[in-house]
Amino acid sequence: MKTNVLVVDDDDHMRIALKESLSKIGYTVSLADNGLKAVEEIDRNMFDLVITDVKMPHLSGIDLLQRVKDKRPFLPVILITAYGTVQDAVKVIKEGAFDYIQKPFNTDTLYGVVKRALGVNGGKIIYASREMKDVLQSTERVAKTDATVLVLGESGVGKELVARYVHENSERVDKPFIAVNCAALPENLLESELFGYEKGAFTGASSRKFGKFELADKGTILLDEVTEMDFRLQAKLLRVLQEREVEVVGAKFPKKVDVRIIATTNRNLAQYVEEGKFREDLYYRLNVFPIHVPPLRDRKEDIPPLVAYFLKKHSKGMDVRIEEGAMELLKQKSWKGNVRELENTIARACILSNYSLIKTAHLPDMNSVKDVSVGSVREMEMKLIIDALKSVGGNRTKAANLLGITARTLRNKLKDYRDLGLNIPDKEV
Ligand SMILES: Nc1ncnc2c1ncn2[C@@H]1O[C@H](COP(=O)(O)OP(=O)(O)OP(=O)(O)O)[C@@H](O)[C@H]1O
Ligand SMILES: [Mg+2]
Questions:
Q1: Quick one: 157 and 193 in the same domain?
Q2: Is the CB of 181 inside a 6 Å radius of any atom of ligand 1?
Q3: In a domain, 104, yes or no
Q4: Distance from first CA to last CA of the chain, Å, rounded?
Q5: Mutation choice for ligand 1 from 116, 135, 149, 157, CB with most ligand atoms inside 8 A
Q6: Which domain holds residue 23?
Q7: For residues 249 and 198, what is the distance between their CA atoms, to the nearest angstrom?
Protein backbone atom coordinates (compact mmCIF):
# COMPACT_ATOMS: atom_id res chain seq x y z
CA MET A 1 0.00 0.00 0.00
CA LYS A 2 1.52 3.31 -1.07
CA THR A 3 1.49 6.05 1.53
CA ASN A 4 0.63 9.54 0.31
CA VAL A 5 1.71 12.51 2.34
CA LEU A 6 0.81 16.13 1.65
CA VAL A 7 3.34 18.69 2.82
CA VAL A 8 2.15 22.28 3.11
CA ASP A 9 4.60 25.11 3.73
CA ASP A 10 5.22 28.50 2.17
CA ASP A 11 8.93 28.18 2.90
CA ASP A 12 10.60 26.58 -0.13
CA HIS A 13 13.53 25.16 1.83
CA MET A 14 11.35 23.55 4.42
CA ARG A 15 9.07 22.04 1.80
CA ILE A 16 11.92 20.53 -0.14
CA ALA A 17 13.65 19.26 2.99
CA LEU A 18 10.48 17.55 4.20
CA LYS A 19 9.90 16.01 0.79
CA GLU A 20 13.43 14.63 0.72
CA SER A 21 13.26 13.16 4.22
CA LEU A 22 9.88 11.54 3.68
CA SER A 23 10.70 10.20 0.21
CA LYS A 24 13.76 8.57 1.69
CA ILE A 25 11.61 6.30 3.83
CA GLY A 26 9.37 5.38 0.95
CA TYR A 27 6.44 7.80 1.11
CA THR A 28 4.94 9.52 -1.90
CA VAL A 29 5.03 13.23 -1.14
CA SER A 30 2.89 15.96 -2.70
CA LEU A 31 3.61 19.62 -2.05
CA ALA A 32 1.50 22.74 -1.65
CA ASP A 33 2.95 26.17 -0.93
CA ASN A 34 -0.17 27.55 0.67
CA GLY A 35 -3.27 26.40 2.51
CA LEU A 36 -5.73 27.04 -0.32
CA LYS A 37 -3.75 24.89 -2.72
CA ALA A 38 -3.62 22.24 -0.02
CA VAL A 39 -7.41 22.21 0.22
CA GLU A 40 -7.61 21.70 -3.56
CA GLU A 41 -5.14 18.84 -3.33
CA ILE A 42 -7.16 17.21 -0.57
CA ASP A 43 -10.32 17.47 -2.64
CA ARG A 44 -8.59 15.79 -5.56
CA ASN A 45 -6.51 13.10 -3.89
CA MET A 46 -6.64 10.58 -1.09
CA PHE A 47 -3.91 11.35 1.37
CA ASP A 48 -2.84 9.38 4.41
CA LEU A 49 -1.30 12.30 6.21
CA VAL A 50 -1.02 16.09 6.04
CA ILE A 51 1.97 17.93 7.46
CA THR A 52 1.49 21.67 7.54
CA ASP A 53 3.23 24.75 8.77
CA VAL A 54 1.09 26.91 11.04
CA LYS A 55 2.13 30.35 9.87
CA MET A 56 1.23 30.86 6.24
CA PRO A 57 -0.40 33.69 4.31
CA HIS A 58 -4.06 33.38 3.12
CA LEU A 59 -5.01 30.24 4.97
CA SER A 60 -3.09 29.37 8.13
CA GLY A 61 -2.24 25.85 9.21
CA ILE A 62 -4.95 26.09 11.87
CA ASP A 63 -7.56 27.06 9.28
CA LEU A 64 -6.36 24.26 7.07
CA LEU A 65 -6.72 21.85 9.99
CA GLN A 66 -10.34 22.94 10.37
CA ARG A 67 -11.03 22.37 6.69
CA VAL A 68 -9.42 18.96 6.79
CA LYS A 69 -11.48 17.97 9.83
CA ASP A 70 -14.65 18.95 7.93
CA LYS A 71 -13.72 17.17 4.74
CA ARG A 72 -11.81 14.16 5.99
CA PRO A 73 -12.34 13.76 9.70
CA PHE A 74 -9.89 10.88 9.96
CA LEU A 75 -7.04 12.26 7.94
CA PRO A 76 -4.29 12.92 10.47
CA VAL A 77 -2.74 16.38 10.43
CA ILE A 78 0.65 17.21 11.92
CA LEU A 79 1.38 20.88 12.48
CA ILE A 80 4.79 22.46 12.41
CA THR A 81 5.03 25.23 14.94
CA ALA A 82 7.67 27.80 15.66
CA TYR A 83 9.61 27.60 18.89
CA GLY A 84 7.81 29.05 21.88
CA THR A 85 4.23 28.62 20.76
CA VAL A 86 3.53 25.57 22.85
CA GLN A 87 0.29 27.02 24.17
CA ASP A 88 -1.00 27.29 20.64
CA ALA A 89 0.21 23.78 20.08
CA VAL A 90 -1.87 22.42 22.94
CA LYS A 91 -4.89 24.25 21.60
CA VAL A 92 -4.23 22.78 18.20
CA ILE A 93 -4.29 19.23 19.55
CA LYS A 94 -7.62 19.95 21.18
CA GLU A 95 -8.88 21.08 17.81
CA GLY A 96 -8.02 17.75 16.31
CA ALA A 97 -4.43 17.85 15.11
CA PHE A 98 -2.69 14.52 15.53
CA ASP A 99 0.40 16.16 16.98
CA TYR A 100 2.80 19.01 16.39
CA ILE A 101 6.51 19.29 15.72
CA GLN A 102 8.44 22.22 17.00
CA LYS A 103 10.98 23.97 14.84
CA PRO A 104 13.86 23.32 14.61
CA PHE A 105 13.58 19.53 14.49
CA ASN A 106 15.68 16.64 13.23
CA THR A 107 14.60 13.79 10.95
CA ASP A 108 14.29 11.30 13.80
CA THR A 109 11.68 13.48 15.47
CA LEU A 110 9.90 13.85 12.16
CA TYR A 111 9.93 10.10 11.46
CA GLY A 112 8.72 9.34 14.97
CA VAL A 113 5.67 11.56 14.76
CA VAL A 114 4.88 10.60 11.16
CA LYS A 115 5.04 6.89 11.89
CA ARG A 116 2.84 7.27 14.89
CA ALA A 117 0.30 9.26 12.86
CA LEU A 118 0.30 6.59 10.16
CA GLY A 119 0.09 3.85 12.73
CA VAL A 120 3.13 2.08 11.37
CA ASN A 121 5.06 2.27 14.57
CA GLY A 122 5.83 -1.21 15.87
CA GLY A 123 3.46 -3.34 13.83
CA LYS A 124 0.61 -0.94 13.30
CA ILE A 125 -0.71 -0.40 16.79
CA ILE A 126 -3.27 2.33 16.27
CA TYR A 127 -4.29 4.38 19.26
CA ALA A 128 -5.07 7.86 20.50
CA SER A 129 -5.93 7.15 24.11
CA ARG A 130 -3.89 7.95 27.15
CA GLU A 131 -4.42 4.35 28.30
CA MET A 132 -2.75 2.80 25.25
CA LYS A 133 -0.01 5.39 25.32
CA ASP A 134 0.83 4.30 28.86
CA VAL A 135 0.69 0.64 27.92
CA LEU A 136 3.07 1.14 25.03
CA GLN A 137 5.42 3.27 27.03
CA SER A 138 5.85 0.66 29.72
CA THR A 139 6.10 -1.97 27.00
CA GLU A 140 8.95 -0.05 25.42
CA ARG A 141 10.69 0.17 28.76
CA VAL A 142 10.48 -3.52 29.60
CA ALA A 143 11.35 -4.45 26.02
CA LYS A 144 14.92 -3.28 26.54
CA THR A 145 15.41 -5.78 29.35
CA ASP A 146 15.28 -9.55 29.06
CA ALA A 147 12.47 -9.85 31.58
CA THR A 148 9.64 -12.27 31.01
CA VAL A 149 6.49 -10.41 30.02
CA LEU A 150 2.93 -11.47 30.66
CA VAL A 151 0.36 -9.77 28.45
CA LEU A 152 -3.14 -9.81 29.90
CA GLY A 153 -6.45 -8.65 28.53
CA GLU A 154 -9.76 -9.67 27.06
CA SER A 155 -10.03 -11.45 23.76
CA GLY A 156 -9.24 -9.26 20.75
CA VAL A 157 -7.68 -6.33 22.61
CA GLY A 158 -4.35 -6.63 20.82
CA LYS A 159 -2.29 -8.82 23.15
CA GLU A 160 -0.40 -10.41 20.29
CA LEU A 161 0.38 -7.00 18.79
CA VAL A 162 1.75 -5.86 22.13
CA ALA A 163 3.84 -9.03 22.39
CA ARG A 164 5.34 -8.33 18.98
CA TYR A 165 5.92 -4.78 20.03
CA VAL A 166 8.06 -6.04 22.91
CA HIS A 167 10.20 -8.00 20.48
CA GLU A 168 10.45 -5.14 17.99
CA ASN A 169 11.63 -2.76 20.66
CA SER A 170 14.13 -5.19 22.13
CA GLU A 171 17.74 -5.84 21.25
CA ARG A 172 16.62 -9.18 19.88
CA VAL A 173 14.75 -7.47 17.05
CA ASP A 174 16.99 -8.99 14.35
CA LYS A 175 16.59 -12.48 15.81
CA PRO A 176 13.58 -14.77 15.44
CA PHE A 177 10.18 -14.05 16.93
CA ILE A 178 8.27 -17.30 17.25
CA ALA A 179 4.66 -17.53 18.33
CA VAL A 180 3.10 -20.74 19.60
CA ASN A 181 -0.60 -20.99 20.28
CA CYS A 182 -0.80 -23.29 23.28
CA ALA A 183 -4.55 -23.73 22.85
CA ALA A 184 -4.31 -25.02 19.29
CA LEU A 185 -2.57 -28.33 19.88
CA PRO A 186 -3.19 -31.41 22.00
CA GLU A 187 -0.70 -32.06 24.77
CA ASN A 188 1.81 -34.37 23.10
CA LEU A 189 1.90 -32.40 19.86
CA LEU A 190 2.41 -29.19 21.80
CA GLU A 191 5.29 -30.83 23.64
CA SER A 192 7.01 -31.77 20.36
CA GLU A 193 6.32 -28.30 18.97
CA LEU A 194 7.86 -26.56 21.94
CA PHE A 195 10.66 -28.88 22.95
CA GLY A 196 11.41 -30.95 19.86
CA TYR A 197 12.55 -34.56 19.86
CA GLU A 198 15.52 -36.73 19.00
CA LYS A 199 15.44 -39.15 16.13
CA GLY A 200 14.00 -42.41 17.42
CA ALA A 201 12.63 -40.86 20.61
CA PHE A 202 9.36 -42.67 19.93
CA THR A 203 7.82 -44.68 17.13
CA GLY A 204 7.42 -42.39 14.18
CA ALA A 205 10.19 -39.99 15.23
CA SER A 206 12.10 -40.69 12.04
CA SER A 207 14.26 -37.59 12.23
CA ARG A 208 15.34 -34.94 14.71
CA LYS A 209 12.74 -32.27 15.26
CA PHE A 210 13.80 -28.90 16.56
CA GLY A 211 11.43 -27.37 19.05
CA LYS A 212 10.26 -23.76 18.98
CA PHE A 213 12.45 -22.91 21.96
CA GLU A 214 15.51 -24.03 20.03
CA LEU A 215 14.35 -22.24 16.90
CA ALA A 216 13.78 -19.06 18.86
CA ASP A 217 17.31 -19.16 20.29
CA LYS A 218 18.67 -15.60 20.76
CA GLY A 219 15.22 -14.30 19.91
CA THR A 220 11.78 -14.23 21.50
CA ILE A 221 9.14 -16.87 21.97
CA LEU A 222 5.48 -16.01 22.44
CA LEU A 223 3.45 -18.56 24.36
CA ASP A 224 -0.02 -17.51 23.32
CA GLU A 225 -2.83 -18.57 25.65
CA VAL A 226 -0.38 -20.13 28.06
CA THR A 227 -3.19 -21.10 30.47
CA GLU A 228 -4.28 -23.81 28.05
CA MET A 229 -1.11 -25.77 28.64
CA ASP A 230 -1.62 -28.87 30.76
CA PHE A 231 0.05 -29.46 34.09
CA ARG A 232 2.86 -31.71 32.91
CA LEU A 233 3.96 -29.27 30.22
CA GLN A 234 3.70 -26.44 32.69
CA ALA A 235 6.42 -28.19 34.69
CA LYS A 236 8.62 -28.43 31.61
CA LEU A 237 8.05 -24.78 30.91
CA LEU A 238 8.95 -23.87 34.47
CA ARG A 239 12.26 -25.56 33.96
CA VAL A 240 12.98 -23.41 30.91
CA LEU A 241 12.22 -20.31 32.92
CA GLN A 242 14.34 -21.38 35.89
CA GLU A 243 17.29 -23.05 34.23
CA ARG A 244 17.18 -21.55 30.75
CA GLU A 245 17.42 -25.00 29.26
CA VAL A 246 15.03 -27.24 27.35
CA GLU A 247 14.45 -30.95 27.65
CA VAL A 248 14.29 -32.22 24.11
CA VAL A 249 12.18 -35.40 24.09
CA GLY A 250 14.48 -38.43 23.98
CA ALA A 251 17.67 -36.44 24.60
CA LYS A 252 20.11 -37.47 27.33
CA PHE A 253 20.90 -33.95 28.50
CA PRO A 254 19.05 -30.68 28.65
CA LYS A 255 20.06 -28.05 26.15
CA LYS A 256 20.85 -24.41 26.93
CA VAL A 257 18.72 -21.85 25.19
CA ASP A 258 18.75 -18.07 25.22
CA VAL A 259 15.16 -16.96 24.71
CA ARG A 260 13.06 -14.09 25.89
CA ILE A 261 9.67 -15.41 26.94
CA ILE A 262 6.40 -13.61 26.48
CA ALA A 263 3.12 -15.22 27.49
CA THR A 264 -0.45 -14.11 26.98
CA THR A 265 -3.78 -15.10 28.36
CA ASN A 266 -7.30 -13.77 28.41
CA ARG A 267 -8.09 -15.76 31.54
CA ASN A 268 -7.89 -14.71 35.13
CA LEU A 269 -4.57 -16.35 35.89
CA ALA A 270 -4.71 -15.86 39.64
CA GLN A 271 -8.07 -17.59 39.68
CA TYR A 272 -6.67 -20.42 37.59
CA VAL A 273 -3.97 -20.86 40.22
CA GLU A 274 -6.54 -20.85 42.98
CA GLU A 275 -8.60 -23.48 41.21
CA GLY A 276 -5.52 -25.62 40.79
CA LYS A 277 -5.48 -25.39 36.99
CA PHE A 278 -2.25 -23.51 36.78
CA ARG A 279 0.97 -24.04 38.70
CA GLU A 280 1.58 -21.36 41.24
CA ASP A 281 5.37 -21.44 40.85
CA LEU A 282 4.98 -21.00 37.10
CA TYR A 283 2.56 -18.17 37.66
CA TYR A 284 5.14 -16.26 39.67
CA ARG A 285 7.82 -16.90 37.08
CA LEU A 286 5.61 -15.60 34.32
CA ASN A 287 4.12 -12.72 36.22
CA VAL A 288 7.37 -10.77 36.46
CA PHE A 289 6.16 -7.91 34.34
CA PRO A 290 2.44 -8.01 33.63
CA ILE A 291 1.03 -5.70 30.97
CA HIS A 292 -2.73 -5.16 31.03
CA VAL A 293 -4.17 -4.20 27.68
CA PRO A 294 -7.42 -2.43 28.52
CA PRO A 295 -10.67 -3.36 26.79
CA LEU A 296 -11.73 -1.08 23.94
CA ARG A 297 -14.76 0.18 25.86
CA ASP A 298 -12.38 1.74 28.38
CA ARG A 299 -10.46 3.65 25.73
CA LYS A 300 -13.05 4.94 23.34
CA GLU A 301 -10.70 7.61 21.98
CA ASP A 302 -9.03 4.79 20.07
CA ILE A 303 -12.20 4.03 18.15
CA PRO A 304 -12.08 6.85 15.53
CA PRO A 305 -8.47 6.24 14.48
CA LEU A 306 -9.03 2.47 14.48
CA VAL A 307 -12.11 2.92 12.32
CA ALA A 308 -10.16 5.11 9.91
CA TYR A 309 -7.43 2.50 9.75
CA PHE A 310 -9.80 -0.42 9.17
CA LEU A 311 -11.74 1.59 6.59
CA LYS A 312 -8.57 2.03 4.62
CA LYS A 313 -7.64 -1.60 5.08
CA HIS A 314 -11.00 -2.93 3.89
CA SER A 315 -12.05 -0.29 1.37
CA LYS A 316 -10.38 -2.02 -1.59
CA GLY A 317 -8.90 1.33 -2.55
CA MET A 318 -12.27 3.07 -2.71
CA ASP A 319 -13.12 6.24 -0.85
CA VAL A 320 -15.35 4.76 1.82
CA ARG A 321 -16.58 7.25 4.42
CA ILE A 322 -18.63 6.96 7.53
CA GLU A 323 -21.57 9.09 8.67
CA GLU A 324 -21.23 10.90 11.93
CA GLY A 325 -24.20 9.06 13.42
CA ALA A 326 -22.66 5.74 12.55
CA MET A 327 -19.41 6.78 14.16
CA GLU A 328 -21.31 7.78 17.29
CA LEU A 329 -22.92 4.38 17.40
CA LEU A 330 -19.52 2.71 17.13
CA LYS A 331 -18.30 4.78 20.04
CA GLN A 332 -21.23 3.71 22.19
CA LYS A 333 -20.99 -0.02 21.71
CA SER A 334 -19.52 -2.17 24.46
CA TRP A 335 -17.25 -4.18 22.11
CA LYS A 336 -17.12 -7.49 23.93
CA GLY A 337 -14.83 -8.74 21.16
CA ASN A 338 -12.75 -5.57 21.34
CA VAL A 339 -10.61 -4.46 18.38
CA ARG A 340 -11.14 -7.70 16.50
CA GLU A 341 -14.89 -7.22 16.63
CA LEU A 342 -14.54 -3.59 15.55
CA GLU A 343 -12.48 -4.65 12.56
CA ASN A 344 -15.03 -7.29 11.56
CA THR A 345 -17.79 -4.72 11.90
CA ILE A 346 -16.01 -2.25 9.64
CA ALA A 347 -15.09 -4.89 7.08
CA ARG A 348 -18.72 -5.89 6.90
CA ALA A 349 -20.01 -2.30 6.81
CA CYS A 350 -17.72 -1.59 3.84
CA ILE A 351 -19.43 -4.37 1.93
CA LEU A 352 -22.94 -3.43 3.02
CA SER A 353 -22.43 0.23 2.12
CA ASN A 354 -21.25 -0.89 -1.28
CA TYR A 355 -17.97 0.83 -0.54
CA SER A 356 -19.45 4.32 -0.38
CA LEU A 357 -20.95 5.87 2.75
CA ILE A 358 -21.37 3.79 5.89
CA LYS A 359 -24.61 4.55 7.70
CA THR A 360 -26.05 3.22 10.94
CA ALA A 361 -28.09 0.72 8.95
CA HIS A 362 -24.85 -0.95 7.87
CA LEU A 363 -23.82 -1.59 11.44
CA PRO A 364 -25.03 -4.45 13.57
CA ASP A 365 -28.19 -3.79 15.52
CA MET A 366 -27.27 -2.34 18.92
CA ASN A 367 -29.77 -4.65 20.58
CA SER A 368 -28.43 -7.78 19.00
CA VAL A 369 -24.81 -6.88 19.57
CA LYS A 370 -24.58 -9.19 22.54
CA ASP A 371 -25.10 -12.27 20.47
CA VAL A 372 -22.29 -11.62 18.01
CA SER A 373 -20.07 -14.32 19.32
CA VAL A 374 -16.54 -13.27 18.70
CA GLY A 375 -15.06 -16.60 17.85
CA SER A 376 -17.80 -17.76 15.59
CA VAL A 377 -17.00 -17.11 11.95
CA ARG A 378 -20.20 -18.87 11.02
CA GLU A 379 -22.30 -16.54 13.08
CA MET A 380 -20.58 -13.49 11.61
CA GLU A 381 -21.22 -14.86 8.17
CA MET A 382 -24.85 -15.47 8.99
CA LYS A 383 -25.37 -11.93 10.24
CA LEU A 384 -23.56 -10.56 7.22
CA ILE A 385 -25.78 -12.48 4.84
CA ILE A 386 -29.01 -11.61 6.61
CA ASP A 387 -28.11 -7.92 6.82
CA ALA A 388 -27.16 -7.92 3.14
CA LEU A 389 -30.53 -9.41 2.29
CA LYS A 390 -32.34 -6.84 4.39
CA SER A 391 -30.44 -3.99 2.77
CA VAL A 392 -31.62 -5.03 -0.70
CA GLY A 393 -35.18 -5.83 0.29
CA GLY A 394 -34.64 -9.57 0.23
CA ASN A 395 -33.50 -9.71 -3.37
CA ARG A 396 -31.19 -12.74 -3.48
CA THR A 397 -29.37 -11.88 -6.70
CA LYS A 398 -28.55 -8.40 -5.44
CA ALA A 399 -27.52 -9.72 -2.05
CA ALA A 400 -25.20 -12.27 -3.64
CA ASN A 401 -23.62 -9.51 -5.73
CA LEU A 402 -23.20 -7.35 -2.69
CA LEU A 403 -21.53 -10.16 -0.80
CA GLY A 404 -19.35 -11.20 -3.70
CA ILE A 405 -20.63 -14.78 -3.66
CA THR A 406 -22.59 -16.73 -6.25
CA ALA A 407 -26.36 -16.96 -6.08
CA ARG A 408 -25.93 -20.69 -5.67
CA THR A 409 -23.69 -20.35 -2.62
CA LEU A 410 -26.16 -17.92 -1.13
CA ARG A 411 -29.06 -20.29 -1.79
CA ASN A 412 -27.24 -23.15 -0.07
CA LYS A 413 -26.40 -21.03 2.93
CA LEU A 414 -29.99 -19.84 3.25
CA LYS A 415 -31.15 -23.42 3.15
CA ASP A 416 -28.79 -24.23 6.01
CA TYR A 417 -30.16 -21.34 8.03
CA ARG A 418 -33.74 -22.40 7.37
CA ASP A 419 -32.85 -25.89 8.51
CA LEU A 420 -31.71 -24.30 11.74
CA GLY A 421 -35.19 -22.84 12.06
CA LEU A 422 -34.36 -19.25 11.10
CA ASN A 423 -36.84 -17.00 9.41
CA ILE A 424 -35.01 -15.56 6.38
CA PRO A 425 -36.41 -12.40 4.79
CA ASP A 426 -35.60 -13.21 1.17
CA LYS A 427 -37.31 -13.78 -2.13
CA GLU A 428 -35.95 -15.61 -5.12
CA VAL A 429 -35.31 -13.10 -7.91
N1 LIG B 1 -4.37 -1.01 18.43
C2 LIG B 1 -4.57 -1.76 17.34
N3 LIG B 1 -4.29 -1.24 16.13
C4 LIG B 1 -4.50 -1.97 15.02
N5 LIG B 1 -4.96 -3.21 15.00
C6 LIG B 1 -5.26 -3.79 16.17
C7 LIG B 1 -5.06 -3.09 17.40
N8 LIG B 1 -5.42 -3.91 18.41
C9 LIG B 1 -5.82 -5.07 17.84
N10 LIG B 1 -5.72 -5.00 16.50
C11 LIG B 1 -6.09 -6.06 15.55
O12 LIG B 1 -7.17 -6.78 16.13
C13 LIG B 1 -6.99 -8.19 15.99
C14 LIG B 1 -6.88 -8.83 17.35
O15 LIG B 1 -5.63 -8.49 17.93
P16 LIG B 1 -4.73 -9.59 18.67
O17 LIG B 1 -4.72 -10.86 17.93
O18 LIG B 1 -3.43 -8.98 18.99
O19 LIG B 1 -5.63 -9.71 19.98
P20 LIG B 1 -5.51 -10.72 21.19
O21 LIG B 1 -5.67 -9.89 22.40
O22 LIG B 1 -4.26 -11.52 21.06
O23 LIG B 1 -6.81 -11.61 20.98
P24 LIG B 1 -7.09 -13.14 21.49
O25 LIG B 1 -7.22 -13.08 22.97
O26 LIG B 1 -8.39 -13.46 20.85
O27 LIG B 1 -5.95 -13.96 21.02
C28 LIG B 1 -5.77 -8.36 15.13
O29 LIG B 1 -6.15 -8.47 13.79
C30 LIG B 1 -4.99 -7.09 15.37
O31 LIG B 1 -4.16 -6.79 14.28
MG1 LIG C 1 -4.00 -13.55 20.76
A1: yes
A2: no
A3: yes
A4: 38
A5: 157
A6: 4-118
A7: 6
Q: What is the mean pLDDT of the chain?
A: 88
Compute, in degrees rounded to 10, the torsion defined by CA atoms 388, 389, 392, 394. 180
Q: Ligand 1 centroid vs 162 CA: distance in angstroms?
A: 9
Pair (199, 310) in one structural domain = no
Are residues 82 and 98 located together in one domain of the fold? Answer: yes
Contact 295 CB / ligand 1 (< 6 Å) = no
Residue 182 contacts residue 224 (beta carbons within 8 Å): yes
For residues 190 and 284, membership in a common domain is answered with yes
The ligand whose atoms approach the alpha carbon of 122 most closely is 1
Q: What is d(CA 300, CA 306) in angstroms, rounded to the nearest whole number?
A: 10
How remote is the CA of residue 55 from the centroid of ligand 2, in Å? 46
How many angstroms separate the Cα of 412 from the Cα of each of 211, 256, 415, 418?
A: 43, 55, 5, 10
Question: Cβ(347) to ligand 1 under 6 A?
Answer: no
Q: Please state which of the ranges 96-105, 139-148, 186-195, 322-331 shows the lowest mean pLDDT.
A: 96-105
Q: Is residue 424 part of a domain?
A: no
Instruction: Answer yes or no: is the C-beta of 48 below 6 A from any ligand 1 atom.
Output: no
Of 224, 258, 292, the residue that ends a domain is 292
Number of domains in the chain: 3
Q: Return the ligand number nearest the Cα of 151.
A: 1
Quote the pTM value.
Answer: 0.64
- Which atom of ligand 1 is the closest one to the Cα of 343? 12
CATH code (residue 93): 3.40.50.2300
Residue range 33-62, pLDDT digits in tens: 999 999 999 998 889 899 999 989 889 999
Span from the CA of 163 to the centroid of ligand 2 (angstroms): 9
Domain CATH number, residue 320: 1.10.8.60
Q: Which residue has the higher pLDDT, 239 or 85?
A: 239
The band of 12, judged by pLDDT with boundaries at 50, 70 and 90, is very high
**Ligand in nearest proximity to the CA of 292:** 1
- Give the phi and the psi of residue 97 in degrees, each rounded to 5: -70, 150
Q: 158 in ligand 1 pocket by Cβ < 6 Å? A: yes
Residue 124 located in a structural domain: no
